[in-house]
TrEMBL record:
The lineage of its organism: Archaea, Methanobacteriati, Methanobacteriota, Stenosarchaea group, Halobacteria. This is ORF I. It comes from the Archaea. Residues 129-148 are annotated as: Disordered.
Length: 148
């Protein structure tokens, strides 16, 4: 929760909503509570509009009617929520400071030694080690080279 509120402080949520014109009148709707109702309502699997509205009403200072809630579900709100997701992804993605370290790598080798369990019909031809089911090791490797 603290990570989310640090990433999306109330002032940021309100300012960005104002920039996009999500709220026409600064009256009843509390944008931070509205955003968190969608985030936590979705996390709690209250994935109906009525569930989101109940979640909002349980945290906001003033409740909102079903009609008032539904009329706020606009393309502008969708754009706003999309912007918030992009902002969050940008913030938690690998920071640019790591790019210089990663650029030093020229080759990356990926190796896998998966053991495939053999069907019990093959147990006569292939004995198992210990008391496990017989298996065949399938080694694979792949090398990726950076373009020079």
């Amino acid at each position: 929760m603290r990570r989310l509120t640090t990433l999306f402080p109330s002032e940021f949520l309100e300012d960005h909503a104002e920039e996009l014109g999500v709220v026409e009148r600064d009256r009843k709707l509390q944008i931070p509570a509205f955003v968190w109702a969608f985030v936590f309502g979705f996390a709690q699997e209250q994935r109906t509009l009525a569930g989101f509205r109940r979640c909002y009403n349980s945290t906001a200072d003033e409740t909102i009617s079903p009609g008032g809630f539904y009329q706020r579900l606009t393309p502008t709100l969708a754009e706003y929520l999309r912007d918030l997701v992009e902002h969050g992804l940008d913030e938690v993605a690998v920071p640019n400071a790591v790019d210089a370290d990663i650029d030093r790598f020229r080759d990356v080798m990926i190796a896998d030694g998966t053991v495939l369990r053999l069907h019990e019909f093959l147990s006569d031809q292939f004995e198992a080690r210990h008391e496990e089911q017989a298996g065949a090791k399938s080694p694979a490797s792949q090398c990726h080279r950076a373009d020079d």
